[in-house]
């Protein structure tokens, strides 16, 4: 059967009806089944799917697997020609058809796709990703499919940590959990007892010793010649996830106690690095001994924030033919309890959470799950009884194993798999580095930051205007300073006027400009200090370090996450067929666009 491949950028599942001039693309409901091939019947006889064996790559280098093709035979039965029915300039045709499709979406009560992109719940793309070419989507659970109330979950983790520290002899009286003390993406300096925020290059921009913020001068003196290097694990500890909040708060508070000299001497000579180990040990005990998770399992409604849209987003993906995987480090009993609480009541037709997934792997031991092979066990009873297993099956529940076992079992490899998680290292970087899986990062704080950035537009624009004014004044001052320098050194001046000008006039102009710059600085400095306060008073915005530069966290996201968003349910507004296209990245020399506009678009040789 003759076919023609349509490279739509999103939602390519139309059914043809007819208008007087153009072929109008209508969108019926369709069910995609696992293992679809180009010969599968999709939307009746009108379309077929591009299979793995017949796929190509498009002009952006993305696989065309999963793209829809029009069956020309179907058009011929209606006496139509695929080209003739869409005649005219393609730009005009595209505009008219988009308007027609948009009207149809409004009739169906479906929001415009563009509305989701320009919102705090958008999905943001750093590397072009065609979801149609994705055969399997794997999900982490904690802080990915299950979102916890940070104050409740991390607050209780902090409480257990402090109880353990107290039993070890540490003075913890009077301390309380303060989640605003830290944000994700900061880095602990275990050698100095500091918490720092670095830019994308590793330069420290803000720092806190214990719970006290350091001045700009102190930061410069301490870190002026030192870069944050996450490969140096003996010194630096990156706060990858919201699970890091309780540990960081406890550690910074205990640094204060160490500095105050109130930690008993019988605990041994402690430095900041030894103190970090003690806090980590206390928190590890809280997790290993099971009290924390037992408390959460007994009253999940106090700790978990359910998202009714999330199960529906996964259901869309499953019905679109994606194989869904749950790969979590949590054990079976905890996973089952959390997933039942968060999913079952929102699923249709008496479905349970297990019905969504083609494979569930608990106690996965990430990041080692992506790096090496561990024994695989099948969970065979509701009580969690396990038996050794060497081969997985669809719908199975397993413990341990490895990512390679998953690939071999599904016969799906590398960039055909998208993995979604909240941990930069454990979930995102390791699955990409070792397996070349496509990756998505979940960062709930993005919603708050997005809103804070919107409300900060006015103050930020004011700062930019003041800095631009200072740059203009500064350039003029520097040219006058150079002219004065040349005159002083009895070198030829730049112009005859500069040669004949009185020194006094030159000096007075420089003095005025210097005063102007000083006054501008007095206005700029507090505005820069306050930038980002709407998100966090100490650390500013999550994704930024300073007014223009990106934070170290944002650099990690760009490097390892193909897409990032605030929650999994945001996929509901994008469809399982979305073509995510990365945006143009600005460069320092992109000023050429301003040059062209000022010179009426003319070019120079």
TrEMBL record:
Specify whether Magnesium is a keyword of the entry.
Answer: yes
UniProt keyword 4Fe-4S present: no
Can you provide one Gene Ontology molecular function annotated for this UniProt record? 5'-nucleotidase activity
Instruction: Supply the Pfam families for this chain.
Output: 5_nucleotid
* Family classification: Belongs to the 5'(3')-deoxyribonucleotidase family.
PANTHER family xrefs: 5'-NUCLEOTIDASE DOMAIN-CONTAINING (PTHR12103), HAD-SUPERFAMILY HYDROLASE, SUBFAMILY IG, 5'-NUCLEOTIDASE (PTHR12103:SF22)
Instruction: Tell me what this protein is called.
Output: 5'-nucleotidase
């Amino acid at each position: 059967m003759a076919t023609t491949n349509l490279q739509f950028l999103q939602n390519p599942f139309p059914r043809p009806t007819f208008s007087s001039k153009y072929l109008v693309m209508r969108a019926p409901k369709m069910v995609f089944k696992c293992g679809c091939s180009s010969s599968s019947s999709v939307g009746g006889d009108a379309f077929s799917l591009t299979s793995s064996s017949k796929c190509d790559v498009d002009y952006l280098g993305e696989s065309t697997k999963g793209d829809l093709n029009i069956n020309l035979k179907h058009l011929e039965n209606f006496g139509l020609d695929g080209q003739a029915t869409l005649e005219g300039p393609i730009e005009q045709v595209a505009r008219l058809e988009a308007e027609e499709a948009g009207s149809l979406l409004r009739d169906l009560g479906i929001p415009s796709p563009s509305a989701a992109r320009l919102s705090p719940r958008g999905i943001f793309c750093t590397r072009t990703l065609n979801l149609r070419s994705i055969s399997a989507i794997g999900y982490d659970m904690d802080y990915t499919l299950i979102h916890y109330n940070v104050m409740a979950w991390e607050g209780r983790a902090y409480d257990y940590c402090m109880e353990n520290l107290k039993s070890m002899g540490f003075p913890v009286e009077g301390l309380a959990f303060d989640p605003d003390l830290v944000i994700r993406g900061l880095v602990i300096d275990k050698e100095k007892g500091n918490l720092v925020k670095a830019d994308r290059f590793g330069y420290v921009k803000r720092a806190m010793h214990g719970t006290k913020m350091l001045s700009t001068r102190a930061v410069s003196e301490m870190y002026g010649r030192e870069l944050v290097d996450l490969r140096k694990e003996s010194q630096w500890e990156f706060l990858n996830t919201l699970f890091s909040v309780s540990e960081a708060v406890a550690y910074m508070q205990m640094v204060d106690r160490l500095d105050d000299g109130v930690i008993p001497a019988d605990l041994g000579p402690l430095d900041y690095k030894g103190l970090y180990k003690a806090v980590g040990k206390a928190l590890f005990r809280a997790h290993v001994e099971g009290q924390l998770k037992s408390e959460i399992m007994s009253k999940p409604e106090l700790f978990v924030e359910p998202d009714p849209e999330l199960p529906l987003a996964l259901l869309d993906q499953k019905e679109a033919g994606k194989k869904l995987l749950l790969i979590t480090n949590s054990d079976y009993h905890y996973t089952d309890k959390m997933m039942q609480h968060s999913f079952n009541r929102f699923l249709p037709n008496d479905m349970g959470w297990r019905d969504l997934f083609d494979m569930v792997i608990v106690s996965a031991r990430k990041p080692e799950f992506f790096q090496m092979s561990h024994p695989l066990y099948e969970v065979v009873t509701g009580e969690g009884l396990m038996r050794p297993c060497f081969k997985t099956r669809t719908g199975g529940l397993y413990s341990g194993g490895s990512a390679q076992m998953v690939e071999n079992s599904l016969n799906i490899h590398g960039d055909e798999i998208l993995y979604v998680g909240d941990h930069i290292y454990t979930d995102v970087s390791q699955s990409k580095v070792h397996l070349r899986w496509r990756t998505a990062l979940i960062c709930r704080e993005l919603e708050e930051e997005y809103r804070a950035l919107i409300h900060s537009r006015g103050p930020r624009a004011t700062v930019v205007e003041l800095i631009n004014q200072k740059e203009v004044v500064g350039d003029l001052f520097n040219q006058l300073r150079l002219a004065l320098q040349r005159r002083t050194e009895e070198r030829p001046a730049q112009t005859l006027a500069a040669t004949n000008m009185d020194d006094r006039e030159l000096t007075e102009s420089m003095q005025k400009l210097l005063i102007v710059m000083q006054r501008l600085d007095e206005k700029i400095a507090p505005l820069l200090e306050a930038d980002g306060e709407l998100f966090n008073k100490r650390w500013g915005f999550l994704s930024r370090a300073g007014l223009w530069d990106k934070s170290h966290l944002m650099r990690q996201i760009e490097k390892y996450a193909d897409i990032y968003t605030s929650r999994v349910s945001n996929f509901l507004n994008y469809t399982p067929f979305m073509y995510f296209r990365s945006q143009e990245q600005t460069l320092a020399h992109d000023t050429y666009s301003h040059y062209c506009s000022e010179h009426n678009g003319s070019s120079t040789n």
